[in-house]
Amino acid sequence: xxxxxxxxxxxxxxxxxxxxxxxxxxxxxxxxxxxxxxxxxxxxxxxxxxxxxxxxxxxxxxxxxxxxxxxxxxxxxxxxxxxxxxxxxxxxxxxxxxxxxxxxxxxxxxxxxxxxxxxxxxxxxxxxxxxxxxxxxxxxxxxxxxxxxxxxxxxxxxxxxxxxxxxxxxxxxxxxxxxxxxxxxxxxxxxxxxxxxxxxxxxxxxxxxxxxxxxxxxxxxxxxxxxxxxxxxxxxxxxxxxxxxxxxxxxxxxxxxxxxxxxxxxxxxxxxxxxxxxxxxxxxxxxxxxxxxxxxxxxxxxxxxxxxxxxxxxxxxxxxxxxxxxxxxxxxxxxxxxxxxxxxxxxxxxxxxxxxxxxxxxxxxxxxxxxxxxxxxxxxxxxxxxxxxxxxxxxxxxxxxxxxxxxxxxxxxxxxxxxxxxxxxxxxxxxxxxxxxxxxxxxxxxxxxxxxxxxxxxxxxxxxxxxxxxxxxxxxxxxxxxxxxxxxxxxxxxxxxxxxxxxxxxxxxxxxxxxxxxxxxxxxxxxxxxxxxxxxxxxxxxxxxxxxxxxxxxxxxxxxxxxxxxxxxxxxxxxxxxxxxxxxxxxxxxxxxxxxxxxxxxxxxxxxxxxxxxxx
Amino acid sequence: xxxxxxxxxxxxxxxxxxxxxxxxxxxxxxxxxxxxxxxxxxxxxxxxxxxxxxxxxxxxxxxxxxxxxxxxxxxxxxxxxxxxxxxxxxxxxxxxxxxxxxxxxxxxxxxxxxxxxxxxxxxxxxxxxxxxxxxxxxxxxxxxxxxxxxxxxxxxxxxxxxxxxxxxxxxxxxxxxxxxxxxxxxxxxxxxxxxxxxxxxxxxxxxxxxxxxxxxxxxxxxxxxxxxxxxxxxxxxxxxxxxxxxxxxxxxxxxxxxxxxxxxxxxxxxxxxxxxxxxxxxxxxxxxxxxxxxxxxxxxxxxxxxxxxxxxxxxxxxxxxxxxxxxxxxxxxxxxxxxxxxxxxxxxxxxxxxxxxxxxxxxxxxxxxxxxxxxxxxxxxxxxxxxxxxx
Lengths: 616, 391
Fold this sequence. Notes:
The complex is a heterodimer.
Chain A: H1 11-22, E1 28-32, H2 39-45, E2 56-58, H3 65-69, E3 70-72, H4 74-80, E4 85-87, H5 89-92, E5 97-101, H6 108-120, E6 122-127, E7 130-135, E8 139-144, H7 153-156, E9 161-162, H8 171-182, H9 187-207, H10 215-227, H11 234-249, H12 257-268, H13 282-286, H14 295-302, H15 306-318, E10 326-329, H16 339-351, E11 358-360, E12 365-371, H17 381-388, H18 392-402, E13 417-423, E14 427-434, H19 440-456, H20 458-461, E15 464-471, E16 474-482, H21 485-491, E17 494-497, H22 503-519, E18 524-530, H23 552-568, E19 572-577, H24 587-595, E20 598-601, H25 607-615
Parallel strand pairs in A: 1-8, 1-9, 2-5, 5-8, 14-15, 14-18, 18-19, 19-20
Antiparallel strand pairs in A: 3-4, 6-7, 10-17, 11-13, 12-13, 15-16
Helix pairs in contact in A: 1-9, 1-11, 9-11, 10-11, 11-12, 16-25, 19-25, 22-23
Chain B: H1 12-31, H2 57-68, E1 75-79, H3 85-91, E2 98-102, H4 111-118, E3 134-138, E4 141-143, H5 150-154, E5 155-157, H6 159-164, E6 170-172, H7 174-177, E7 182-186, H8 193-205, E8 207-212, E9 215-220, E10 224-229, H9 238-243, E11 246-250, H10 256-271, H11 273-297, E12 302-303, H12 305-317, H13 324-339, E13 344-345, H14 347-358, H15 372-390
Helix pairs in contact in B: 10-11, 11-13, 12-13, 12-15, 13-14, 14-15
């Protein structure tokens, strides 16, 4: 096994793990990194620097709910005839480390349970006749590849340190990697180094309570958090703990500038929602020497900061791009008046059973028990025992009579109940909206109306909506799969339009979004494409500025290959053509055909018509 | 305060106590399965003190008003991550008053409820109030975790008894424990649909009916429903939303001084919880006393017909369906007046709490730009303006 000290590069990640080892109340470390960077090796090697005997539990991605939080141990219970409780993975990690590889692929119910355990420091088990509290105070170490999708914000909020994303190691590191692989390093060296690190961590833990921090320093970090638009007040505390741990690790008794900079880098910057007006670190730090600004004034500055800030960001986006931009304001968008009719239409659809939640025997959340064969699913213990209980006396007599042996419990085939699960997945509607050309404003408005009305009913079906706009050189995910009206509203407020039509890029982006959603348990996916079907920008353009022009055949080939693959992948599609008849050259119906989806010609489509088409 | 830090990071003594406690519960169950401790005793003893929580006045007020009058119908706390939602709710237990219940009753019933249900049933003797022993308990706060199964929520057959002695005994669930207390659901917007169905049903009728596995039990289950969550994680089912009396919104505090204070208090608490709690004892007791005083005063509070008319008009002008809006405003205004030590409800009281009562009852429009609170305030100003003009 490769030891912590043998791992090359990723210095920041190592530093982060050291800090966590010093102060476990930092909650955890998340390491986003590309495939092959050695992030999971590093995370597993974390155990090396922890005091001996610290539990290190790796969470399998396909963990079931009862394994996660605990429940009744089936075999032991049947064998002993008494209820035997099995602790879940979360409580096994108590006082130690819970490690999750591919954190972003963890299904949402598991994420919710982890969040809950982290907020209480315990797991409350209220299942199958059990009512217990198991302590579960653990550090969460998570690694993931950002191209697999993002980790849920609610979970990140409970984890103190997020290591900034790094793509690759440098060459010196590579040299060392080769050394290790070739075995030129001495194992004794490694052992010594590890011992030294463990010693450092131990010393730092003792130092922790002796580190002091001035009010000005605390205030400086908090102001930095505010200028970066970091949400919530919990992060402030992580940030301060991080600075203190850093000082303790260096055996200092006072928090210094470098500790604060590190805390800003590891705790605040990864959570920034906006660019600060000033430089976040250097200047912010130095500004402490000046008398701090009046607090009420600072607050006033912060409050209305949203609007000018947003503008500033847009300007930045605008500069590199020479495309004429039309900024569109969602405030002006009219909502269809008969939104209620749409919701009725979709409810009807849900009852017909073609969409919505699916009951099954394998995954999702355990809902109820049903009669069934042992092999066809997971046995629901308590209901099985309950149905067997009333017959025990009579069965025992029978067995005694026939002289056959019997155990503490006599369970017959007909007693067996299996678990039925509810797969909590509706349909993911991926809207792909052509934001190029002059009709873009119109299409965007229709799409937004449709997105809004679908979301109005999202709670009914557990449906989700994503929105991808394509214009200029490549497609862009404006709204990742979401159920939240609030979030959609915020993301869709300002949409840029105009420029070329990168249709192939849209298909690719949509397909990637679909694949990511699949890993999270969403099985039904539908593309809703609002376009005239006329792509004129090749895929290459996304990274090669000279590739904007491409022969027509190449464009068609790209689109065809993608469309056919998407169809083969089982994604349903509809294409809504909004082009005026006399301008249409029949590209949109062709696109629909290649996708194996239906084609709607709706030149003045209202939002509700689009919703109807999508639900039909 | 907040938020911050994981509630997990209780004192080290609380940590050490936790496993011991879990064990104790298990042992207690093995020997005397029919006697259940009230849920509140199951919780770790030391929550961050309620009175030491900085800011988030809206949420704190909502919770206090619900203690004063549980008929207000609970509170939904929605807002940013890491702003102290669950810390505040979990701190609530420490400032709750005592209530009397029938001794060791698993449903926390009053003497009247107990006699109503148990007296003269199938050969049992007719009970008189003086025959029933009572005890004082702290108003229970029951945590409903997301992964709870239906049998633990509603209660089910006691499996051990059924297997060992063949007796069909009822093992009460969380709904029984929460009778006359608080039922708290963190991340309520992620709660499974089938549990939401159960809750809606019970909340509407005030009783839990269990008809499963060959047992038939009904028991009172009146609780104050407290939910919290982050709206960005998903929407709440409208029927459930409607069940909550109040809707408190919570945002990141953007006042540097307050944020510094939050961090400092948390650090003090982490370093020495015992000392920190001790420092807060007086404040905690003061608040508890204030709540009890308000409870006693509540019966004497009255409301002018004029104020009632204005409330009705406010709800009408805002286009709120049904009468739950008016009812909630009225009850909440009574409780608020009592908390202020007043015996007459004025429009000023109503104004202070109207947002809490109505915010979630306005129709939600994803493209609406005007904040619901602002809308309510605007209508109120209109009505109050008319009032002034008429006077």
